[in-house]
Amino acid sequence: MFNIQEELKKLPAKPGVYIMHNNLDEVIYVGKAVILKNRVRQYFQNPERHTAKIRKMVSSIDHFEYIVTDSEVEALVLECNLIKEYRPKYNTMLKDDKSYPYIRVTVNEAFPRVMMTRQMKRDGSRYFGPYPNYIRDMLDLIHKVYGIRNCTRNLPQDIGKERPCLNYQIGRCPAPCQGYITEEEYRKRIDEVIRFLDGDTDAITTEIERRMQAAAERLEFEEAASYRDLLATARKMNEQQKINSTESLEDRDYIAMARADDEAVIQVFFVRGGKLIGREHFEINDVRGEEKAQIYAEFIKQYYAGTPFVPREVMVQGEVADAEVIASYLTLRRGGKVNVTWPKRGEKAKLIELAYQNASMVLNKDSERNKREMARTLGALRDLGKLLGIGEIHRVESYDISNTSGYENVGSMVVFVDGKPKNRDYRKFRIKGFKGQNDYASMEEVLTRRFTHGLEEQEKLKESGLANSMGKFSEFPDLILMDGGRGQVNICLAVLEKLGISLPVAGLVKDDHHRTRGIYYNNVLQPIDTSGEMFHLITRIQDETHRFAISYHKLLRSKDQVKSILDDIPGVGEKRRRALMRHFVSLDAIKNASEEELADVETMNRASAKAVYDFFRTGGQTEGGKDKTEDAED
Predict the structure, then answer these.
(1) What number does CATH give the domain 252-362?
(2) Are 76 and 325 in contact (CB under 8 A)?
(3) Which helix (H) or strand (E) holds 183?
């Protein structure tokens, strides 16, 4: 038995990370401390000083563990990694998990390429960005104006081994693969590209204008029109980037937050070389009672733990908790000095104010929309409760089965609370009791496992004095919706009766065109107005249940296919196979990936990426001549 008071006495007076668990051994909170002994004890002293969120978290703690580190910065790095891995319930978490595109220039190659990437590596390349809004237009412009190759040929070793590609024929590549351009001449083009990406947009517009006029003088009006369109694109991007930074041309991110009730929106402006190249907003939930400085700290840690680029300066609207430690962490991530500051006046403060205004607009827009949607949704739930005669409905659970001719039977449980999907409570079930296709037997197994787990958890939580909301299965719904009529409803009722549970169960009955036409409840089929909000809510729940079940089924099938095929590729062992499966998920995504995208995957290198790329381009032939790719897909 874990005695919290006794374990508190054993805590060391050293920096480290502490990990809180509930009675189901789930990680519910991860934090760092300068002195573990002092920080962890604070949670269990003077509870009236804590926010409601922290008090609730403390009441859920069953046991904790800790990891000692050599420094506070090392503790922060470990904290970021653990939060990313476990996504604990009581840590302030970003709703968004965005991955931004960057431009990569492979300056370490004899004939460099310019391409999009979402990961940065210490590979000698130069990276520019992020460009969340118009990266494809920018790449298209670069390739059209400067004629940069985008093939994966190994140059200069492969010069003359193959014919030039279509890009050479249409004038978009000077064919270094044939030796038609020297390294020195090609390097001049790359230098111009880097000047453009560094912010010198005048050079590219001047070059386009020169080509347009030359084409017009030759009476080649179609070519001139093409350059005219390119010029418009270049000027548009230049306007989007404009920001008169008279102080310096440093790379900076400007961060500001607007908040209301328990929601917050953080806006980030990306300034590179003195020009605004993009902006993005992030939503954060459950921030009631949180200090602004702490929210900024949590955001910065989570955001820069996932982004491949860290600027030299991070400008924030207000103070940041543990600012010095966070700056040291960002310095490690960047590999160079990073400053975290909150300017009060001058040009930087004005830009932060602009970011705040943008965050406020997003928050207000989202807030008004959410209020309207909530009013409609709650009205639909009230109508559904009246139709079935069961009173108020808050929590709805819906179930579905997915398989392909009995292969990989899976079940899904989707939860809606007050008309909104509660993704944290979704559950997936892999059918274990039998093989083959039997939807009724599959549904019986899913429901039996779900509610048996629920009853067991309720007993454990009751013994610990905790609410049912603390478990994975312990909360029961106000209504169960089955994707089917009498048969599915009777299966569910039989399972509940066997377990001694009484809950309302309704079935969705479809017409000959597979459209829902009514609700089956208490042996009565109730028609539904297909133009009303109640029907739209039921349809959303139904569609989400299908989507969740099918996506899980596809994932299992895809992993089986990927595993069987990747086993046959030389140079791809267990670690690389798993990395590819995590990164791409589906077999088609791996097949269609370029060598660069494959090389960007963790654990992969240039040789293994080429092996995978070549394997699928040659039909997946093995030494015995049998096409394993085709077998795996059948």
Answers:
(1) 3.30.420.10
(2) yes
(3) helix 183-197
